[in-house]
Structures are given as C-alpha cells and as structure tokens.
Automatic annotation (TrEMBL):
Annotated GO MF terms: aminoglycoside N-acetyltransferase activity
Keyword RNA-binding assigned: no
SUPFAM superfamilies assigned to the protein according to its UniProt record, in alphabetical order: Acyl-CoA N-acyltransferases (Nat), SCP-like
Record's protein name: UPF0256 protein
Gene3D superfamilies: 3.40.630.30, SCP2 sterol-binding domain (3.30.1050.10)
Amino acid sequence: MSLTLRPMTESDWSDWITVDEEAFGSPIPPYRAELFRANTEFERSLGAYDGDLLVGVTAVCSFTMTVPGGPIPVGGVTAVGVLPSHRRRGVLTALMTRQLTDLRERGEAVAALYASEAVIYGRFGYGRAADGMVFDVPTHRAAFVPGAPVDPALRLRIVKPAETGETFEKVFDAVLGSRPGLYARTPGRWNSVLTDTEADQGGAGPLRAVVVEDDGGPRGYALFRIKPSWNDAGVPDGEVRLKELFGLDPAACALLWRHVLDRDLVSRVTTGNRPVDDPLTYLLADVRQLHARWMDELWIRLVDVGRALAARRYSAPVDVVFEVEDAVCPWNARRWRLTADSSAARCVPVEESEEPGRAADLTLPVGALGAAYLGGQRLTSLQEAGLVREARAGAVRELSTAMSWEPAPWAGLIF
Ligand SMILES: CC(C)(COP(=O)(O)OP(=O)(O)OC[C@H]1O[C@@H](n2cnc3c(N)ncnc32)[C@H](O)[C@@H]1OP(=O)(O)O)[C@@H](O)C(=O)NCCC(=O)NCCS
C-alpha cells in the first residue's frame, strides 16, 4: 500500500461518508450527514489515499475552549475512521502524525477529542483529561438534603426547544467560561444539540425543554425526552432521559433537577454524560441512589508543550523543570522549565531559561501533561501508578497542585 495524505474537498464528501459508515459499521442518515457537513471545515480535513481509493479520514474543528484561566484556541479532532479493509496497517498512525504537525504549523498548541474506544489515542500522546458521569436515579428516592437552595423568585417555563434557541445560547454563553473543557458553540453545533428526528428520539419522544427564570431573565434550562411506560401491574414507569442541564447559579440548577426528578408518571431519570462533580451528587440526600459510573470523556494532546502550558493559569506558584517524553511530536521531547504565579506563566526549553543547566525535577510522557492540562487529573495519581517519575522529592506534588483546578473539567457535547 502506498499512502498519500491530503485535505479532502466537497467533491470527496460521499467517499468520506462511505469510509466513516464502513468504519463505524452503521449508516449515517442524510440529516446527520448534513449536520456533520455544516460543522465541517474541509480545509482542516485529512484523507489517506491508497492509490485513488480513500481509506482513512479525519478532520479538525476550530474550537475556542475554556481551560484553567480562560478561553484558548483548541483543535477538536473528529470523524476519525479507517476503511475495514485497510485497518491495522498504519493508516491512523499516518493521519494522526500529519495532523499533529499541521496543528503545530497552524499555531494551535492543544488538540482535544472524544474517543470511540479508550485504547486508541494514548499512543499518539493524548491523555484522559476529563471524565463524564453516567447515572440513573429512581425518582421516588430522590429527596434533597436539608438546606438545598431554593429561590422564591425563580419560576419554571415549559418551552418548545426549536423556538427557544436564543435563550439556551444566552445561558450557555454565561456558563461557558466557568468550567474547563466547555467549548463555544457555533450555530451548526447548536443544530446538532437541538436535532429532533425519530432517530434522535430513540423511542423516547420529542425533545422537551424547561427554562428557569426570574424577573431579570433566564437563569437555566434543561433539555430532555420522556419515554412513557407502565409496568405489568399498571404502575407508571416512565423515564426522563436528560440531554442537557445548565444553570447560572445553585438555586437555578437545583430547581431544574427538581423539575426533571418530579415529573409525573416517571420512575427514573437517566443521563449519559454529566460532570463528575455535578451538584446533584451533593443535593441528593441518599447519594447511593445515583447508580453512577464514570467513563473517559475528553482527551487532550499538548501539540506544543511550551505554548500550551504558558496559555493556561495555575492554582499555586510553581517553578519546576521536567523532561517530556514524546515519540510522536519530537519537538516536545526535551527538558522544559515552567514558572508561574497567579497572573502569568512561562514555559520554555530549559536552555532558554535563566538556569540553562538545571536538571529535571521529574520525567513524564506528554500524555500525562495532556491528562492534567484541564486541571482534573492529578499528576500525583499518575506518579502513584508509576507513570510519572520524580527526581527531586516533592516536585510532582508541586506541579500537580499548580495544575489542578476547580471545577472538574467536562466538555458536555460530543464532537
Ligand atoms: C480506530 C481506527 C481508526 C484505527 O485505525 P488503524 O489504521 O487500524 O490504526 P493503525 O494501523 O495506525 O494502528 C496503530 C496502532 O494502534 C493500535 N490500534 C488501533 N486501533 C485500535 C483499537 N481500536 N483497539 C486497540 N488497538 C488499536 C494498532 O493495533 C496499532 O498498534 P501497534 O502500533 O502496536 O501495532 C480504525 O480501526 C477504525 O476506523 N475503527 C472504527 C471507527 C473508530 O472507532 N474510529 C475512531 C473514532 S474516535
């Protein structure tokens, strides 16, 4: 196989869809393909060709993502697929390697992705930066703790999702900066949130929405579906499937949760991806009723270690030298010095710092820095797992503390 790589164009679209359909083993309905196309920046796509045959695909979305300290440009890697006839012959490796070089040349210091399988991207230097929580709460056991916030000024309004987009956007834009991992949504991205075909409904009826507001305007919203059912004894056994819930303050969040938990004829609320520190985990009087599990959510890759680490802020002052291992992006594989206080950060190759001969305090793979980048994974945990090595006692803890951040990172929307 002789592989050539090049960006795809509109004329490659049907071949692109074919590769992803074959790779994922499921058809992409035309409306989904249209949504996908609307979110596609063709000049940022990459196709791998075996002769004239398109055998591998990927693309990047230009995101503005919140990281500790504020928003930065991030390359959102998406649509990765290799034709089953060409798998395990290095096509993905070729695509990933070229894509990382392209990202660097473009000046994007950080890449992010959602993985179909957790085993795929670690080898390319991505680290598991955010986890999502999946849970299932029985509504009859969902009382709140005493002292849960209540604001009498708040009221609920049932709305039609398709007619309320501006309100959702207003709320989302107000919370966007509050949690690392959230990324700004384009109109195309909102379309994929609000799409409501039969296939989206999955047997659970149309998308429903409720807004909480006071005299000053909207303070939160929830998007969900309801799957009604009755058990053999005729007892209502419906399910609320929560899609999104965002509130500007604790009382708004609590009221939204109360609303979905208190819907009539419903016996459980299920949700596929919430932040691991979701307020509901503290509001429920009986936390054992959460029936939760977590899974990897966002994976982060530092494309350019120096620029990426200088672009975020730190929880504590830090001055460490670390050796980075990076077989895929050799420009990162060197000794770096990170110095930061609460207002600024600098990360340069140690030979360009004021102490050019300083030895490394610790050694770590680039994926460990990606994992810690959004502040949710502790480098000390990776050290305990034997994946980060310390040369100066206490150095890992210093860097780990400085990189940690509140609240837990979470992107909340697959791209
Ligand atoms: C995942 C996928 C893109 C891999 O493509 P590929 O061209 O076969 O990957 P490569 O040949 O470059 O593999 C590189 C290495 O990763 C390993 N690898 C790749 N995919 C893997 C997987 N799904 N599980 C375990 N290992 C995997 C390969 O074994 C190989 O390891 P080696 O270097 O030790 O031999 C392809 O199998 C695919 O399209 N899968 C279905 C769609 C999908 O899941 N896409 C990802 C969306 S996020």
